[in-house]
Amino acid sequence: MDLKDHIREIPDFPKPGILFYDISTLLAHADAWQVTMGRMAKAARVYQPDVIAGVESRGFLVAAPLALKLGCGFIMVRKPGKLPGGTVTHTYQNEYREDTVEIQDNAVEPGQRVIVVDDLLATGGTMSASISLLRKVGADVCAAACIIELGFLKGRDAIDVPVHALMTYDS
Ligand SMILES: O=P(O)(O)OC[C@H]1O[C@H](OP(=O)(O)OP(=O)(O)O)[C@H](O)[C@@H]1O
Ligand SMILES: Nc1ncnc2[nH]cnc12
User: Fold this and answer.
1) What is the pTM of this model?
2) Tens-digit pLDDT profile for the chain (171 aa)?
């Protein structure tokens, strides 16, 4: 199955000049979503992760079912101000805005193997900020995974762990 057939491309969202890759159509298609999660699980299993970290908000949609499939724990990398207790934060630039991510300082046990999961890799700002946070709280980040990679933005160059993408757009 070509999963690209299930991605909707919307020009000029959320601002002029951005071509937005919408996963709503993929999520809504039962077979395509099953295939997506099967392929993610196959790529991720190799790393024998203890924990899957999902990046708010679309990353949660991918990371939580992946964690269930692999029998792993699931932890949240969130937008700021939403997590109770002690947290650490990191501010960065993504494809269209400045953003901050936050994690609980006790989110992982020291040395736990973590795969960071998001729906889409663009500039890599979100993914590398999330990896920095996870390391700050003691995680051994072993890989990053996403459904869509915007290869022309070269986001994976900013990431120092193996990156798995189910599909790549080169222009
Ligand atoms: O590689 P980058 O340039 O950092 O861009 C990728 C990030 O941008 C999108 O999230 P967005 O901030 O739009 O939030 P959402 O998931 O809440 O829609 C996407 O879900 C990734 O998290
Ligand atoms: N072009 C894009 N489409 C969908 N999500 C994104 N996140 C960052 N860039 C994006």
Assistant:
1) 0.96
2) 999 999 999 999 999 999 999 999 999 999 999 999 999 999 999 999 999 999 999 999 999 999 999 999 999 999 999 999 999 999 987 777 788 999 999 999 999 999 999 999 999 999 999 999 999 999 999 999 999 999 999 999 999 999 999 999 998
Residues 64 and 54: beta-carbon distance below 8 Å: yes
ipTM of the complex: 0.98
Q: CB of 69 within 8 A of CB of 46? A: no
For 40-169, which CATH class? alpha beta
Beta carbon of 92 within 6 Å of any ligand 2 atom: no
Pure H helices in the chain:
24-27, 30-45, 58-70, 125-136
Domain extent listing, the chain: 40-169
Assess contact for 131 and 125: CB atoms under 8 A: no
User: Which ligand is nearest the CA of 155, by number?
Assistant: 1
Active site residue 56: no
Our measurement of the distance from residue 127's CA atom to the centroid of its chain's CA atoms, rounded to an integer in Å, reads 7
Q: Is 45 a catalytic residue?
A: no
For every residue of 70-115, DSSP letters joined together read: HT-EEEEEB-TT-S-SSEEEEEEE-SSSEEEEEEETTSS-TT-EEE
